[in-house]
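Example record for the data management plan.
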Amino acid sequence: MSCLGTHFAVTAEVAAWLNGYRPHTGADVIEFIEYLEGQYAALRAEGWVQPTEHAWDGIHRSLTDGKLGLGSTPRHLCILGATERFWVRREDGQLEYIVNVLEPGEVRRVADAIRGIDRAELLRGYEGIDPESFYALNMSEDDFEYTWDNFRSLQAFFERAADAGRWVVFRVDQ
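Corresponding structural encoding:
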């Protein structure tokens, strides 16, 4: 597993697979992610996939409180979200996938919240990353530029998804 993050903007019909009212098993979530991965090329060609690779972690920490935690603010929703509802754990309890599913109203809230964030503001957040975290070992000018470049693409992606009324699914393998 490589810890590469990807956002997918999907239709309500696709999101219904996971967003139903029944409980989901880890196998259901993995099946859904495998379906999205199978659609990657087509969705990417239409502009509905935004890879953030390893930058997802720095983006999340820079947008929030410097930590890798859940929260209900639009900035938390952008990456990890508010709950572990779709997170998949192995039998030993270790994370296998982090999956966050946002409905169109939440997508709009995220788009609105991150739209005006400029390089200076993201840098302030980046500089506030918890120095005790494992991530702090990787912080550098190059890492910030990588984080900033991916964030700018993510801003545009959320605007397109919100304007189209799409759901957004974030996934990262662990």
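Summary line stored alongside the record: The mean pLDDT is 94.
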